């Protein structure tokens, strides 16, 4: 008679098992890309997003001018061979300003005039909101009780303030700069992330592997960030894509209201605000192109997130 204990052991993860090989990692990557390309919606979104990512990365090579170079002989000009998208009121090339503006959104965070961090302003803002929101959501969802009640009531109070008004209050209080815009995006986005992570944690904390970790005597921090969070990453990643779009839209709104990046930074929202003054005199280009840039990038991120969510639901 054979014992069933050997069968049970084959189904349990081996703590001493070697890490996945390169072939396993490649297979997972290939399966992930197959899911992405299976959705036409996600594919269209990916093309739009990658266009702006590529433009941001290679801005110095796809433009003939710097973002602040001025052509005094050609202010408020329409598209031409020398200026493919036209110029603004100071004769600055609009394509160059769009490309370098994309760098600020997606590639670099200008901390000072001479120092910057890799990663765009919108990405840093969303990352900070994910960090704070996930921590609060895990703490409330896993621990529950009075801790959950205090966290949720505090976040409910934050969410009761209209989003645009909350952005204006924060940036007007601490000043307009790229770092302060990141801080504003993080503060505004934290409640939504926390509520999402909390709802996922409430479900995952009842799973067998969480109970097994508790039985082994693992700490709450270990369980929250090693057992619960990795198993909730799918919905969180999709939500993060949408939040990057919201952050870009928020940056444009703040720039339009004069609370974005200070001039002469090629802030898309500021470009729209200045360009709209010249629409009625027959020069709509300075307002049109940055508006289309914001719209196309936000729509691309939304399409990418929606397509991935639809495909993920099909494979569940």
Automatic annotation (TrEMBL):
<keyword id="KW-0472">Membrane</keyword>
<feature type="domain" description="ABC transmembrane type-1">
    <location>
        <begin position="115"/>
        <end position="305"/>
    </location>
</feature>
<dbReference type="InterPro" id="IPR025966">
    <property type="entry name" value="OppC_N"/>
</dbReference>
<feature type="transmembrane region" description="Helical">
    <location>
        <begin position="240"/>
        <end position="259"/>
    </location>
</feature>
<feature type="transmembrane region" description="Helical">
    <location>
        <begin position="122"/>
        <end position="142"/>
    </location>
</feature>
<feature type="transmembrane region" description="Helical">
    <location>
        <begin position="181"/>
        <end position="197"/>
    </location>
</feature>
<dbReference type="InterPro" id="IPR050366">
    <property type="entry name" value="BP-dependent_transpt_permease"/>
</dbReference>
<dbReference type="InterPro" id="IPR000515">
    <property type="entry name" value="MetI-like"/>
</dbReference>
<dbReference type="GO" id="GO:0005886">
    <property type="term" value="C:plasma membrane"/>
</dbReference>
<dbReference type="InterPro" id="IPR035906">
    <property type="entry name" value="MetI-like_sf"/>
</dbReference>
<dbReference type="GO" id="GO:0055085">
    <property type="term" value="P:transmembrane transport"/>
</dbReference>
<keyword id="KW-1133">Transmembrane helix</keyword>
<feature type="transmembrane region" description="Helical">
    <location>
        <begin position="154"/>
        <end position="175"/>
    </location>
</feature>
<keyword id="KW-0812">Transmembrane</keyword>
<keyword id="KW-1003">Cell membrane</keyword>
<feature type="region of interest" description="Disordered">
    <location>
        <begin position="1"/>
        <end position="24"/>
    </location>
</feature>
<protein>
    <submittedName>
        <fullName>ABC transporter permease</fullName>
    </submittedName>
</protein>
<comment type="similarity">
    <text>Belongs to the binding-protein-dependent transport system permease family.</text>
</comment>
<feature type="transmembrane region" description="Helical">
    <location>
        <begin position="279"/>
        <end position="305"/>
    </location>
</feature>
<dbReference type="Pfam" id="PF12911">
    <property type="entry name" value="OppC_N"/>
</dbReference>
<keyword id="KW-0813">Transport</keyword>
<feature type="transmembrane region" description="Helical">
    <location>
        <begin position="35"/>
        <end position="59"/>
    </location>
</feature>
<dbReference type="Pfam" id="PF00528">
    <property type="entry name" value="BPD_transp_1"/>
</dbReference>
């Amino acid at each position: 008679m054979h014992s069933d204990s050997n069968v049970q052991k084959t189904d349990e993860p081996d703590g001493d098992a070697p890490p996945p090989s390169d072939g396993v990692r490649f297979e997972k990557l290939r399966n992930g890309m197959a899911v992405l390309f299976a959705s036409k919606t996600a594919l269209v979104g990916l093309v739009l997003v990658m266009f702006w990512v590529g433009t941001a990365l290679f801005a110095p090579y796809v433009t003939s001018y710097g973002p602040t170079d001025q052509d005094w002989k050609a202010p408020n000009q329409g598209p031409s061979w020398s200026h493919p998208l036209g110029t603004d009121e100071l004769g600055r090339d609009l394509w160059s300003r769009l490309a370098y503006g994309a760098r600020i959104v997606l590639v670099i965070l200008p901390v000072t005039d001479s120092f910057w961090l890799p990663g765009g302003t919108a990405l840093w803002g969303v990352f900070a909101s994910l960090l704070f929101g996930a921590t609060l959501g895990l703490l409330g969802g896993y621990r529950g009780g009075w801790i959950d009640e205090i966290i949720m009531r505090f976040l409910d109070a934050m969410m009761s303030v209209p989003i645009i008004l909350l952005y204006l209050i924060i940036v007007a209080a601490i000043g307009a700069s790229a770092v302060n815009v990141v801080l504003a995006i993080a503060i505004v986005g934290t409640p939504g992330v926390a509520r999402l992570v909390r709802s996922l944690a409430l479900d995952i904390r009842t799973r067998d592997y969480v109970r097994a970790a508790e039985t082994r005597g693992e700490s709450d921090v270990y369980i929250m960030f090693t057992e619960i969070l990795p198993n909730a990453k799918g919905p969180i990643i999709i939500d993060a894509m949408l939040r990057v779009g919201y952050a870009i839209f928020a940056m444009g709104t703040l720039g339009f209201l004069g609370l974005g990046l200070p001039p002469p930074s090629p802030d898309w929202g500021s470009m729209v605000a200045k360009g709209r003054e010249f629409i009625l005199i027959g020069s709509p280009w300075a307002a049109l192109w940055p508006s289309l840039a914001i719209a196309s990038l936000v729509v691309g991120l939304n399409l990418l997130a929606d397509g991935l969510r639809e495909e993920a639901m099909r494979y569940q």
